[in-house]
Structure formats: C-alpha cells, structure tokens
Design brief:
The chain has 129 residues and is mostly beta strands. It is 0% helix and 47% strand.
C-alpha cells in the first residue's frame, strides 16, 4: 500500500503548480484523500481533502486558489494550486483514509491530519522570487 506525491518545485509568487498523488497496490474508490503541508517551524495542517463521493473541504487560506480533484480510474488525486504566495511554501503530502463508498464529509469538515492513516513521502513546494 503506497502513496506517492509529485509535482512540487520552485515557483514565483502568483504562479501555479499541480501536485499529483498516485496510489499503488490499493484502490482509492473507498478512500477519502487529503493534501497536507508542513512548513518549517509549523505544525502539519490539512490543506484540502476529497471524500469518496467527491465532496471537498479546504482550509480557509487556500479557498479560491487551490482545487482538489480525483480520478479513480487512474487511482490518482490532484491538487491544482494557483496564485501561490510565499506562505504556501512547505512540504506537501497526500494521505488517504478508508471511509467507504460514496460517503460525504460532514458540513464544516476541515481535513484534520489525524483522520488520515495512509501517508506517502512529501514533495517540496517553494514559492519565491
């Protein structure tokens, strides 16, 4: 059971990146998928997550800039990040949690990292001019 995040890099403020998360040896159909980040000196935080029915949740700081999506046929998840700023600089991780088929997040869900139990290595995102 493996998750692998990719797509990080160095980007200028205002730029965009698309992160990808590939699942291996298990199907994402029954899983919620989340993107998380840890900046130097800060705790890990949930950025965005998508449930098995496609419902989504975002941390307030990325709403309107980031979009999470999933492609179950390819066993992939994505995080499109637009209008990046230096505060987005962090190591980004994808994680998964078996939630069941076609299950929604409850209203106000904020993707707590402790809800997710399958983690992959991170990918570094650096926003700097």
């Amino acid at each position: 059971v493996q998750l692998q995040a990719s797509g990080g890099g160095l980007v200028q403020p205002g730029g965009s990146l698309r992160l990808s998360c590939r699942a291996s040896e298990f199907s994402l159909d029954y899983y919620a998928i989340g993107w998380f980040r840890r900046a130097p000196g800060k705790e890990r935080e949930g950025v965005a997550c998508i449930s098995s029915d496609g419902s989504v949740a975002y941390v307030d700081s990325v709403k309107g800039r980031f979009t999470i999506s999933r492609d179950n046929a390819r066993n992939m998840a994505y995080l499109q990040m637009n209008n990046l700023n230096p505060e987005d600089t962090a190591q980004y991780y994808c994680a998964a949690h078996r939630i069941g088929f076609d299950v929604s997040f409850y209203s106000g869900y904020r993707c707590p990292p402790t809800d997710f139990d399958l983690w992959g290595p991170g990918t570094q995102v650096t926003v700097s001019s």
